[in-house]
Amino acid sequence: MTAMVLNEKYELNDSVKAEMKQYREDGGFRVPNSYVVFHDVIADKCINQLRDDFGFKLNTVAVVEDGWGDKMEVARITGTTPTDVALTLQYHPSNQ
């Protein structure tokens, strides 16, 4: 099976950029919802591609803190490859 990997870089639109700038200026206490929604859409595309194009069997998808103490969250995906290798993958907004 041959499949293309989703590897495009998505740019924030101007309104989300402005909200993120304000978030940082305010001390970074609450990530704007528009930023979360923006990355939810991208993470869903990646998860669907793993499943549909590569045969990845999803076990769990959870949103957890990234561990940096900045209240940012990541999507942590567990599952198995078509050859039954268990994997834990993480989608992080800053390296999408």
Given helix and strand content, the structural type is alpha+beta
Kindly estimate the percentage of residues that lie in beta strands according to DSSP: 15-25%
Q: Report on the biggest sheet.
A: 3 strands, antiparallel
- How many β-strand runs? 3
Arithmetic mean pLDDT = 84
Which sequence of SSEs, written as H and E, runs from N to C?
HHEEE
Report the radius of gyration as a whole number of Å.
15 Å
* Contiguous helical run count: 2
Q: What strand line-up does the widest sheet have?
A: 1-2-3
What does this protein structure show overall?
A three-stranded antiparallel β-sheet has the order 1-2-3, with helices on one face. The protein is 35% helix and 24% strand. It is α+β, with helices and mostly antiparallel strands and 96 residues long. The chain has helices spanning 14-25, 33-54, and strands at residues 57-65, 73-80, 86-91.
Task: Furnish the topology, listing elements before pairings.
Layout: H1 14-25, H2 33-54, E1 57-65, E2 73-80, E3 86-91
Antiparallel strand pairs: 1-2, 2-3
